[in-house]
Write a structure and sequence with these properties.
The structure is a homodimer. Chain A is of the alpha/beta class. Chain A contains 17 helices and 14 strands. In chain A, the strands form four sheets. A seven-stranded mixed β-sheet of chain A has the order 2-8-7-6-5-3-4, with helices on both faces. Chain A has a three-stranded antiparallel β-sheet with strand order 10-14-13. In chain A, strands 1-12 form a two-stranded parallel ribbon. The longest helix of chain A is centred in the C-terminal third of the chain and has 27 residues.
Chain lengths: 491, 491
């Protein structure tokens, strides 16, 4: 049979590792790789009472509440609670602005219930909340028709990257997408699936991970024989690199994309996570509009989600992408695309609206909201500074300032013997480091090779999320491990 | 520039209707087509106070709570409520089994909060609930490693259909999938996007929409020159056709797939919606296992979701697909595929677990749950019978018995003049009928051409969901419309 070819003999099964869609075989998402699996085994071993030099596994992933560093924002949870169980709308323990928000949402829903389907692009009232947020943030009005709600940021990335692809899947006519290195590996993972051509450009580690125009040009030029470059992905604030781009840097990037005819895909999910003094978040949309009429036809896609910031509602899977400069007929294709799922999940939708429109001064919930937000932001800011200082205090580690997002991406100057030992074990040197760290301390950091790095350099990604009181102890363990590791492999 | 070719002149934009991924242009989801858009306009006109011969738009889509026919099941909402806002775990108004369920789920979550990411395949505790449900339902044990939670049934359909595709996207090596006609149009819509080859097989309207082996064979044989047939989609109970397949019929289909080397994709989302006396739901998985050892290598994918049955939680987007007969290496590709989204939304996950493991006799919530479920099921059963009888009472309409699911799919014997009038307006005859019905009564039914039908026959899909007290009035309106329509176009 045609679909059983190529196997060793005829398999009785139809879908085998030989015959499954090759796109599925290309997928690789490094953050959930072997180290993640090993950390799960260690968790089970701990639960079974096995003795270890640590009592818990700490996963350095962007999961603010999961790492126990962050309590949920009360307003968010109260709104979702009453939406779920409207009997409590009579309960006096819930503030009036919570009830108002819930009634507004239910009034737009068929049957007055959260359970009914919404329009495919998402509830109008939520898209209006988002549009108002964008208008205020940027000082340029936004319309709800440009906003498409999704099940989290990951779905938005898939939908937009897929739209950028061409019919050519193999030859030089296939779509190319510029991605930063280091990157959030969902971009390369998804491009592998889609058979898009990856055009890696390196962030400048010596300039706190800003983008350099010469490097962008080099990367683009070298890609030309292999693909049709279509877009540039910019992650600001940076994941895994923790930088916040300057206004001027973003302006240069927009000019570059304009000159080179590239769509700009702005991943701005960490826009509320800014810590370093003198840093501010500038949306690509604002910088673009500031450039004026000449850039009227520029195409920009902006991404946001409910999982980060002081809200940190990861598993609700709220997110949106917003289109600037796309014609109505193209928008209708995006709209059609969304209809195939009926609608994004309603909790994620509502959460995204709350992230964009939290309580305001004068609202019943404002004082508590402000207190909670301030405490979280203060703690994150403290840990950002502490993490940078701690890492730089270790011999053989160099770390840029954590200006935003939730991560540091330090460079480790690994001894030659460690590099050789890794080679002997069939590992990348940074994986060896991360693996030994996990076994010694229970701390799971992502090796730099998962996010990409310049050849001959080695990094890892660590979050600033764990709560302050745990951080101190974790740093002690880390320091001991690092010193032991360097000694073990010294020349 | 290479990516601006083919347009009329050079567009300043990069992503235009000429250059967007052609896959997005192929997408077509008939249920959210022009009639749906017109119904939204009518709703706005009503809201603005425009006079119409009706006071509300009734959308005949599978949205049980949205159509006000169905109140949510209290247990479901109480669990979701306490998960969201665990302060209420101290509240005496909530039953002990609700609290127990909530504590069980939170204990499996990092940080003890619903917000943290779960494993990509979904929470273990939820997959265990589903595995236990399947084991009990079928009498054959199931393992949680075969269960993959998704954001609703639509996502499961996409993931599985995509896995079935081959590398060949255009030629005779592309994957073929047998789909029923009439069908739930997400199947054809998704196959259009994926460039899969559709192999339509006709359900037998004269035998209450059962599957005929001769017709399956005819459809398959005729497809052979054009594709590599990979799978057969079976929807049971049927959407839009409302039939419940007999045990014997399912057995024949499995034997057919086995002989012809096809994966069976069993869409069983309406498995709890059974009304007609003498009908029972038989899962494909049980029938397969009953066939014994000879079918050990048979590959089956089974689909379920939280949106239907007496729960009807549509916008929570809970769903799963379950794999039977897939090797570990193939399962790992499915697993990798899920990692690209981090995890499915947590409310959908929990809801799916509750659908599979509702309160049991002896539980605090059982009495109320049983009362609510029985009332909904009784009402649906009554409306199923009523709808069949009503439709058959109209001259020129023939309707099979609504045995299950939520729909009737009656045939309308349209007068020649109506067929001609439709042609003159560039509409299919069934769209003309549905369009005039919408304008006259506010009732939005899906024209048969959206779901597919034998050439020269005309149908529409109507739900049995609206509440009983409204149904009577709606039928009167409908009857008046139908008689007027037939008179208007009589020969």
């Amino acid at each position: 049979m045609a679909d059983a070819e190529g196997g060793s003999g005829v398999s009785a099964k139809i879908i085998t590792s030989e015959t499954i869609n090759p796109a599925y075989k290309r997928i690789k998402y490094g953050l959930r790789g072997p180290l993640d699996q090993r950390s799960q085994v260690i968790e089970e071993e701990l639960a079974q009472g096995q003795a270890k030099p640590f009592t818990e596994v700490v996963k350095h992933i962007g999961d603010p509440q999961g790492l126990q560093g962050q309590k949920p924002i009360t307003f968010m949870r109260q709104v979702l609670c009453l939406l779920t169980y409207p009997d409590l709308l009579q309960d006096e323990r819930f503030p009036s602005d919570v009830k108002k928000r819930v009634r507004e949402i239910l009034s737009e829903k068929n049957g007055g219930t959260i359970s009914s389907y919404t329009s495919s692009q998402g509830l109008k009232i939520v898209r209006q909340q988002i549009a108002d947020f964008i208008s205020t943030r940027d000082g340029y009005p936004e319309d709800l028709s440009n906003i498409y709600l999704t099940n989290g940021g990951g779905e938005a990335i898939r939908i937009v990257l897929k739209a950028l692809m061409t019919a050519d899947q193999e030859g030089p006519g296939r779509a190319g997408v510029m991605i930063p290195i280091p990157e959030y590996p969902l971009y390369s993972g998804r491009l592998l699936e889609l058979n898009g051509y990856q055009i890696p450009y390196f962030l400048n580690e010596d300039d706190n991970w800003q983008l350099e125009m010469g490097e962008l040009q080099r990367a683009l030029n070298s890609s030309r024989p292999h693909c049709v470059p279509r877009a540039l992905v910019l992650i600001n604030p940076g994941n895994p690199t923790g930088q916040v781009l300057t206004y001027e840097n973003i302006r240069e990037v927009i000019k570059f994309c304009h000159r080179e005819r590239l769509v700009l895909f702005a991943d701005e999910v960490y826009q509320d996570n800014i810590y370093a003094d003198g840093c501010a978040f500038h949306s690509c949309r604002k910088v673009l509009h500031d450039l004026g009429e000449e850039y009227r036809d520029f195409q920009l896609v902006s991404l946001h989600c409910s999982a980060k910031s002081h809200f940190g509602e990861c598993a609700l899977r709220g997110g949106y992408y917003q289109l600037t400069g796309f014609d109505e007929d193209v928008k209708s294709f995006f709209h059609n695309r969304m209809t195939l799922y009926s609608c994004p999940n309603i909790y994620g939708q509502v959460a995204m609206g709350i992230v964009c429109q939290p309580p305001k001064p004068g609202d019943d919930s404002y004082a508590l909201y402000d207190k909670e937000r301030t405490a979280i932001q203060k703690s994150m800011k403290e840990k950002a500074g502490m993490t940078t200082r701690f890492l730089n205090s270790l011999a053989g580690i160099q770390c840029n300032t954590v200006q935003g997002a939730m991560y540091a991406f330090p460079r480790v100057l690994l001894p030659d013997k460690a590099i050789q030992a890794a080679k002997d074990q069939g590992l990348t040197p940074d994986s060896l480091y991360a693996s030994e760290l996990l076994e010694a301390t229970g701390q799971f950091v992502a090796p730099g090779s998962v996010m990409g790095q310049k050849e001959g350099t080695y990094h890892f990604r660590i979050t600033i999320i764990p709560p302050l009181e745990k951080t101190v102890h974790q740093y002690e363990q880390f320091k001991r491990f690092h010193e032991d590791f360097m000694k073990k492999y010294e020349g």
